[in-house]
Amino acid sequence: xxxxxxxxxxxxxxxxxxxxxxxxxxxxxxxxxxxxxxxxxxxxxxxxxxxxxxxxxxxxxxxxxxxxx
Length: 69
What we know:
This protein is mainly alpha-helical. The chain is built from 3 helices and no strands.
C-alpha cells in the first residue's frame, strides 16, 4: 500500500506505533487501493534499468570532466 494512501489516517507526529495504527485504519477502508506485488521478472528488469542508469550517469560525468580538463 503506498504511503500517500495511509498519510491521511496519521493523527499526530510520526512514530512506529502511530504509523501502524494508521495503516490498520487505512486497510480497514473498503475503498482502499493496494499496490500489486512485483514479479521476479519485473524486479529483474527494474534492477537492470537501475544499473544502466548508473552507467549512463558515470559515462556522462566522465565526458564532462574530460571536456573541462
